[in-house]
Specification:
By secondary structure, the chain is an all-alpha fold. It has helices spanning 2-10, 18-24, 29-40, 44-62, 68-74, 81-84.
Length: 92
C-alpha cells in the first residue's frame, strides 16, 4: 500500500493509466483492481481521481483566488459539481 500511495501522490499532476499504476506497484491490473476495491471501495483510477480532487480542494482553500480551471488542468481532472459536492465559491 505504501508504494501505491507514493506513486499516486507523485503522479497527481500527470496522466496515469491502470497499466502504469499496476507496474509501479508490481501487481497485475486485476490484482491492483481487487486491492483498491477491498481497501478503498473503488477502482484504482477512481481512487486517484479522488486524490486529485482533494488536492484541488486544498488548493482552493489555501488560495481563494486560485482559478479552478487551472487547478483542474494541473491535476489532470475536470471537476464537476457532483464530484466536488460543492460549488467552487464554497471554498472562497
Amino acid at each position: 500500500m505504501e508504494r501505491l500511495h507514493a506513486f499516486a501522490y507523485a503522479h497527481l499532476d500527470r496522466p496515469v493509466t491502470l497499466t502504469t499504476m499496476a507496474s509501479a506497484v508490481a501487481l497485475s491490473q486485476r490484482q491492483l483492481n481487487t486491492l483498491c476495491h477491498s481497501e478503498f471501495g473503488q477502482s484504482p483510477l477512481a481512487w486517484l481521481r479522488g486524490l486529485r480532487l482533494d488536492a484541488i480542494r486544498r488548493s482552493l482553500v489555501a488560495d481563494r483566488n486560485a482559478d479552478l480551471s487551472d487547478l483542474a488542468m494541473l491535476h489532470w481532472v475536470l471537476p464537476s459539481r457532483p464530484l466536488l459536492c460543492l460549488l467552487p465559491c464554497a471554498f472562497r
